[in-house]
Amino acid sequence: MAGTNRRRSGEARAEPAAPSVVLVEPQLGENIGACARAMMNFGLADLRLVRPRGDWPNYKAINTASGAESILDAARTFDTLGAATADLQHLYATTARDRDMVKPTLTPREAASRIRHDAASGGRSALLFGRERTGLENEDVAFADAIVTVPANPSYASLNLAQAVLLIGYEWFQLGAAAKTKRRSRKGAEPATQEEIALLFAHLEAELDEAGFLFPQHKRPRMVINIRNVFSRASLTDQEVRTLRGIIVALTGKKKTKR
Q1: Is residue 182 pLDDT above 50, yes or no?
Q2: What is the pTM of this model?
């Protein structure tokens, strides 16, 4: 569609409330470029790539970005999803597949509203998008606060990456036109970052392994996902994470002292 202001073309003008866009193992440069273009359309600027396939950056992404090269230039690559989201507080996983997880399932409009609310509370959010062929793995989704699913034809519900980014970006942008987000001061606590959450999980799982709880071994991955889902739904603050880690230390410390 026509309508681009060429004097502003190529500038990634994102407001502070804008969520990050995280692509997990994207396979084609063209798709990354198309996502960057969709992001530019709706004021999203922070693109994070987890293990992109092939050479990066590449000319196919640049050609497809069609004026959104500044987003590609600023894009950061990471080895793990945890590293890509360590500084963020809220994650929203996009998927068209049913998941055997108890998590809120949101439409793009509902997710956009939640992200605006997160920003008003001082939290930074990210939208997670999976591989073109298989989407996000359950291990990726387990870290998310909620699942985002686009209502579509049930016999053909799969969207490509750029379409998904465009739809959710549009809903988020439209809400910004109606109301400006303001950061509220919070007394005593801020939303926990994903790095803090990951350290809590590592601490808890190490102690559960030592106690023999995560047994038998072949059931451990599913048990870990279930435990992580419990805490992901809670939207923990940094103070709550410190309290939980203190509880773990107190409980395990007593056991070790008696040995």
Answers
A1: no
A2: 0.76
